[in-house]
Amino acid sequence: MGVFNAFMSLSGMIDTDVTEQEKLARHTSYRIGGKADLFVTCHSYHSLRRAIEVLAREQVPWVIIGKGSNLLVADDGYRGAVVTLGTEFSRFVVGEDGCTITVGAGAMLARLVNEALSRGLSGLEFAVGIPGTVGGAVSMNAGSRTDWIGSLIEDVVTYKPGEGIRHYAHDDIVWGYRTCGLPRDEIVLEITLSLKPASKDEIRAKMERSLTRRRRTQPMGVPSCGSVFRNPPNRSVGAMIEECGLKGFSQGGAEVSDIHANFIVNKGTATAADVAAVIQHVHGKIKETYGVELQPEVKFLGF
Predict the structure, then answer these.
(1) Choice among 22, 88, 125, 297 that is catalytic
(2) What residue ranges define each of the domains in the chain, with the CATH number in brackets?
(3) Which residue in 43, 177, 180, 188 is a FRET match for 150, CA 20 to 30 A apart?
(4) CA 196 to CA 128: how far, in whole Å?
(5) Mean pLDDT of successive 10-residue segments in the chain (303 residues)?
(6) Known catalytic membership, residue 178
């Protein structure tokens, strides 16, 4: 039993790509992270189900990721299998009513936003510029301060290992700020969103305003994981960090952004240990100053 047997079994599977000792820095927006024992891309539901069964049988720990846009991977990597969703999970289907879109969890959120624009469907303008996959966006209820993807979702399809497909209507799920009440042991496969018809010019104008705001207030084009901490009720984490004089605070190649203090950026040479040290320092300073226990928005793998 183990990684070798899992690799041999997965190597012969249809719709499955598997590599050993894959550098996870290639698969995160931070461009940071050591190697995973196995990196598995499943291109169909049957491939995903069989892969998870093999990993369970061989007692290999596994985790599923999207594009790693809110993920910090340890410098030592991950002792187990990292699973991603491939071809079949990137499909789009527009409903007969012309206002609903069913999209696979592996599709890029940016592509979904552009698909909605091309069809004159409004509702996703707030998501322009948000990186990552649809599945990742659902799992963290991604959005802006006032809008989030969960409010648009009509239906979610998941896979529960060992049991099979499950369906959830919008009201079956508890949606909150940067949280989604789906069971953590289930994998999002696809979602259906309900959008509203609007003129393409109006949609494009809203998108441009949203993107301009992001470019003005966030460090675009530099490796980061987006917002590091969730905002406490009625507070801005960025403002709190800035008030503590922590803009520009750095450890090794990791630095609190001077554009938005809730972003910790990789200046090019940062290690996961550097980023973790900055996160810990900021967390401690905020607790000391305000008595607030910040909750991380970034996910940690391999720590």
Answers:
(1) 297
(2) 3-88 (3.30.43.10), 91-216 (3.30.465.10), 223-301 (3.90.78.10)
(3) 43
(4) 17
(5) 92 96 97 98 97 97 96 98 97 94 97 96 94 95 89 97 96 92 96 97 95 90 94 93 97 97 97 98 98 96 96
(6) yes
